[in-house]
Known about the structure:
By secondary structure, the protein is an alpha/beta fold. The protein folds into 2 domains: about 5-105 and about 300-320, NAD(P)-binding Rossmann-like Domain (Rossmann fold), CATH 3.40.50; about 110-290, 3-Layer(aba) Sandwich (Rossmann fold). It contains 13 helices and 12 strands. The protein has helices spanning about 20-30, 45-50, 65-70, 90-95, 110-125, 125-135, 165-175, 190-195, 205-210, 230-235, 250-260, 280-285, 300-320; strands at about 10-15, 30-35, 55-60, 80, 100, 155-160, 180-185, 200, 210-215, 240-245, 265-270, 290. The strands form 2 sheets. A 7-stranded parallel beta sheet has the order 8-7-6-9-10-11-12, with helices on both faces. A 5-stranded parallel beta sheet has the order 2-1-3-4-5. The longest helix has 19 residues, at about 300-320. The protein is globular and about 70 Å long. The chain starts with 10 loop residues before the first strand and ends in a 10-residue tail after the last helix. The mean pLDDT is about 95. 1,4-dihydronicotinamide adenine dinucleotide binds near residues 85, 108 and 162. The site of 3-hydroxypyruvic acid has 7 residues, from loops. It catalyses: (R)-glycerate + NAD(+) = 3-hydroxypyruvate + NADH + H(+); glycolate + NADP(+) = glyoxylate + NADPH + H(+); (R)-glycerate + NADP(+) = 3-hydroxypyruvate + NADPH + H(+). This is Glyoxylate/hydroxypyruvate reductase B. It is an enzyme of class 1 (oxidoreductase). Its EC number is 1.1.1.79, 1.1.1.81.
Amino acid sequence: MESHEAVKRPRVLVTRQTPGESLQxxxxxxxxxxxxxxxxxxxxxxxxxxxxxxGLLTMLSDRIDGEMMEIAGDQLAVISNYAVGxxxxxxxxxxxxxxxxxxxxxxxxxxxxxxxxALLFAASRHVLPAGNQVREGEWKTWEPTGWLGVEPAGKTxxxxxxxxxxxxxxxxxVGGWGMNLLYTSRSDQAEVEKELGGRRVExxxxxxxxxxxxxxxxxxxxxRNLIDAEAISKMKSTSVLVNTARGEIVDxxxxxxxxxxxxxxxAGLDVTTPEPLSAEHPLVKSAHCVILPHxxxxxxTSRNAMAEIAVDNLIAGLSGRPLRCSVT
Length: 328
Ligand SMILES: NC(=O)C1=CN([C@@H]2O[C@H](COP(=O)(O)OP(=O)(O)OC[C@H]3O[C@@H](n4cnc5c(N)ncnc54)[C@H](O)[C@@H]3O)[C@@H](O)[C@H]2O)C=CC1
Ligand SMILES: O=C(O)C(=O)CO
């Protein structure tokens, strides 16, 4: 039986065209099939495509569970996710089968933190609806009471999940706008506190005391719906919620209600449940919510670098070497 040991020309599936030249490196050592469409393969198509592959280069929209690994077969040695988040992969199932799993951390940290800051300002200053007023020819005059927003300078920033992107976001807002920092984390972050000041607090305290809350935890069973109705009810009526992590971390129904009741000031989301979110969804229609189509890492620099890591991970996994960035 063909198993995890290195094979001469391993068969690899890449579930979407990635930017840059990195796939060329893969083609030199593997038989590569790239899913050619813009839309992801359906579950059915993916089940058909994974069969007999030694390696998979997957996107965050591909759900790779135990069943999918089973369908792929015993020869599957490595799953390389083209993302830092890996909630779309059943890592325990992969471990059980001895399949290596890789991700693409660090190289997208700055781009995603930049976008968190952009969303914070967009939601604070009505950037989209005010801009639309101009586009739609509805701009009548300068109004002393028009489009009044909130300002971050000197206010309190709450970072939920002080990992790489949480810290980079805090660095921008503490350094640039003199914000005071609160954060949640599973452990104290002495280095962060040395660099940025700040205090580790319980989530309830963070929500009650922050003027701007930015979510950066990984999606796990523990963080799913972390920002639920009760959590949102603790936030200040002048506060802004930003989520660039994963949609499932925020209870969207509760957020709709909070925005409708004006119990928070606004929200900026790069991630939703589902993705894409229907244009009819009340959050999309809300004047107090800015939604972007999951573009946190969407810069040439980040996406090219992610592709390089994803290919390095795949090649390492196929030859039984430790991955450049492993989550198993
Ligand atoms: N919008 C986008 O395009 C992007 C979204 N992301 C999302 O951002 C997430 C974070 O990325 P990184 O900062 O690179 O990951 P990271 O692993 O450095 O940070 C995640 C942090 O969350 C903490 N955490 C996990 N569970 C927690 C809990 N229950 N309570 C408090 N803290 C908890 C972890 O300890 C860690 O510090 C990714 O998992 C991904 O979902 C990442 C990149 C781009
Ligand atoms: O890397 C991730 O986790 C993303 O969401 C997109 O880059």
